[in-house]
Amino acid sequence: MRLLLVAVFGVMILRLVQVQEFGNQHYAALSRAQLTQAVSVPAVRGGIYDRNGEVLAETVTRQTVVADPQIISKPAVVAAALSPLLGIPADTLRAQLTEPTGFVYLAHRVPDAVAAAVTKMNLNGINLVPESQRVVPVGRLAQPVVGTVGWDGNGTSGMEYQLQSLLAGKAGTTDLLQSPSGVALPSGDRSTPATPGTGVELTLDESVQYVAEQALAAEIVASHATGGTAVIMDVKSGDILAMANLNATPAANGTSGATGTPATTGTPATPATATLAAKVATAPNTSGATLIAQSDTLPAGVEEAPSNSAVTQVYEPGSVFKLVTFSAALADSVVTPSTTLSVPAALPMGKYTFHDAEQHGTEAMTATQVLAQSSNIGTIEVAQGLGETRLLGQIANLGFGKPTGLDIPGESQGLVPGAAQWTGTSIGSTPIGQDDAVTAQQVLDAYNSVADGGVFVSPRLIRATVASDGAVTGAAPSESHRVIDPGTNSELTTMLESVVSAGTGTSAAIDGYTVAGKTGTAQIPSPDHLGYIPGAYIGSFAGFAPAQHPVLSAIVVLDRPTPIYGGAVAAPVFSTIMSYALHHFGIPTTAAATTAASTTAVGGTGSVTVPAGAVTEGP
Amino acid sequence: MAPPSTATARRAPAAPQSRPATRRPPLRIFQPEPRRGARKGRPARAHVWMAVALVVGSLLFVVVGDAMVAQDQVRLSNLQGAIASAQATQKSMQTEVAQLAAPDRVVAQGIALGLTAPAQVVNLPQVPLDVPLPVPQTSSAPTPATSPAR
């Protein structure tokens, strides 16, 4: 008997040792599995800000009201209590609270006040679960650039998509310890904290963006255009200060242009004169983001474009492309600004005949006049002197046919036929902006090169990254390289000034400042057959200001406007946007800059400098 | 002290043999010797009590310590919750400020207050401040009062 007891206890001791010493990890894991619940902790998505730190998109934590119907003894009472708070009919809530499940969602992402009220009611079985929500406090401002997120919180377009890995961060996990009865117990270990996403500071300026969109929208309505693009850029840094992409709403434009409150062409709207619907409406959620400040700020009949048309849509540039021809011709001394050309009424070439926009007889025009009056025939004559190879070289030199470096999803590098694709009439069509397909940003980059003294600066949309602790790290400056020699550039700038002072772009003039630029009116190729769509044009204007000390460059493109001419529809929008931006950034007027320069010279420094304001107070 | 003991005396009661009757020595009272076991028992019992007290105390210390750790964990959890809540509130307020400062709202408020855009922006001429400003020209100098008004 005694031996039996000893044997039994011996076995028990051996088993105890086996369980405690050799099998402890296994049983501890089983215990943990019963008591703990692994929960994924989503990372807070980084915000998107403008160049001044204004919030364009940000993620906030909102509370979602959930219920455990199995422990709610009086669902009718609870439903009646919650109904007015959540704005859900009591019957609907009661039906949810009597479902045979242990978890139901009652209301997603309720406002903070509602969450606080629900907490205060202390209802058994009603809980709050935090959920992240992407909010856009400035409505749809710059939406094609900023982009959207889906219901899963991932970016679906724009910067939200392009910078998904940077913005998203990394989710963490935590093990919630709870008693068998389900009571949560404190547990400080076994948690992998989430890594918050990195925020991004864009180069956009919220105010300039707003004005650009308002001015462009007003002109889309006024000219019954189907859409438009406006981009404004810091000459030196390549920072894009505004990038507006708007479309006429399909319902408004029918088969052609937009309708709405008409505005007189040539009298562009200013922020204050633009019609604003002040009503604050609940935003239709087209994405996972919530437009908490949604106001119908754009005129009726105009909406944000679905994509960043400035870099995704290509078009034949028309006469703005003459910059390429003349920059190469001046550089190669094919012409000088004062070279006189004999410009006939028409120029036959193969089976085509080229004309100017306005009928005229054979005229003697200087190269400056050819550019100012946007003579197609005169430009073709210059290009014939230049030659195919040199023209194609300058097209590539100014960035056409290449990605801009913005790396925006869906960006097009354009279509530039090489020498192998040239036909007998290419030397007539290419110099005047036909045959090639370019993006608005590419055209602006070329004009910005002239504004920057002949130095090509890659455009930039990301100014800095913002860590979760608020530390701001500046992005790398844009790359630059010389594409036009200074002497040629100076002559070209003077010629472009004449376009605004005495040519086709007089509507781009800004009181107090000198402006240089070029108009463009291009036909739209037919997608169905060789040739162009009858009556369909793209009107554009690209330029910079102040002309002699350029600080800002900009382009405005309108799709199918009426009237068709860039000088009539795009140049006034350029003037409005540029005028606001010049004042916004404190750029001195040309007269003030000249006075300051002369004062500096007289003051003994011996050098005439760029106006101080343009440097210190510029964008 | 203890009386002298002899082997005979100690042995005497252990050998009750029938011997020829002799005179029995007179009985004497011996002081009992302190028991060896009793002398050793007191410190052993103290050790046991001390050990028990040590074990109980240790257990109590561990329990109290564990409770304090758990309490701190609860406090830590509450603080972390409060931090998260404050951060969420800060984010909400930040977005609310952004909403209030959005250009469309500012313009709408301006219009509501009756502000209008100027028909034309007038650029003021730049006045160099490193040279004396010209003296204002007046048509006639103000006549000084002969007597101050009262």
Low-confidence stretches of chain B: 1-12, 144-150
Helix coverage percent of chain B: 40-55%
What integer value in Å does the Rg of chain B equal? Answer: 56 Å
Could you tell me which chain pair has the largest interface and how many residues each side has? Answer: A-B, 43 and 36 residues
Decide which structural class fits the backbone of chain A: alpha+beta
**Helix share of residues of chain A?**
25-40%
| Total helical elements of chain B | 3
Description:
The complex is a heterodimer of chains A (619) and B (150). Chain A is an alpha+beta fold and 619 residues long. Chain A has a domain at 60-130: Penicillin-binding protein 2a (Domain 2), CATH 3.90.1310.10. In chain A, the strands form 6 sheets. In chain A, strands 2, 3, 4, 5, 9, 18 and 19 form a 7-stranded mixed sheet that branches. A 6-stranded antiparallel sheet of chain A has the order 12-11-10-23-22-21, sandwiched between helices. In chain A, β18 (462-466) and β19 form a beta hairpin. The longest helix of chain A is centred in the N-terminal third of the chain and has 21 residues, at 2-22. Chain A is elongated, with a radius of gyration of 32 Å. The termini of chain A are far apart. Mean pLDDT of chain A is 85; it is low at 255-287, 291-295 and 600-618. The longest helix of chain B has 65 residues, at 36-100. Chain B is rod-shaped. Chain B has a domain at 42-113. With 150 residues, chain B is mostly helical. Classes of the chains: A alpha+beta (619), B mainly alpha (150). Chains A and B meet through β3, α9 and α20 of A and α2 and α3 of B.
Question: Which helices and strands occur, and which strands form pairs?
Answer:
The complex is a heterodimer of chains A (619) and B (150).
Chain A: H1 2-22, H2 24-35, E1 36-41, E2 48-49, E3 55-67, H3 75-86, H4 90-97, E4 104-110, H5 112-121, E5 126-135, H6 143-146, H7 158-162, H8 164-168, E6 172-178, E7 184-185, E8 191-192, E9 199-202, H9 206-223, E10 227-234, E11 240-248, H10 250-253, E12 302-304, H11 309-312, H12 322-331, E13 340-343, E14 346-349, E15 352-355, E16 363-366, H13 367-372, H14 376-386, H15 388-397, H16 426-429, H17 440-451, E17 455-457, E18 462-466, E19 472-474, E20 480-482, H18 486-502, E21 516-525, E22 532-545, E23 552-559, H19 566-584, H20 590-605, H21 612-616
Parallel strand pairs in A: 2-9
Antiparallel strand pairs in A: 1-6, 2-3, 3-4, 3-5, 6-7, 6-8, 9-18, 10-11, 10-23, 11-12, 13-16, 14-15, 17-20, 18-19, 21-22, 22-23
Helix pairs in contact in A: 3-4, 9-19, 12-14, 12-15, 12-18
Chain B: H1 7-11, H2 36-100, H3 103-112
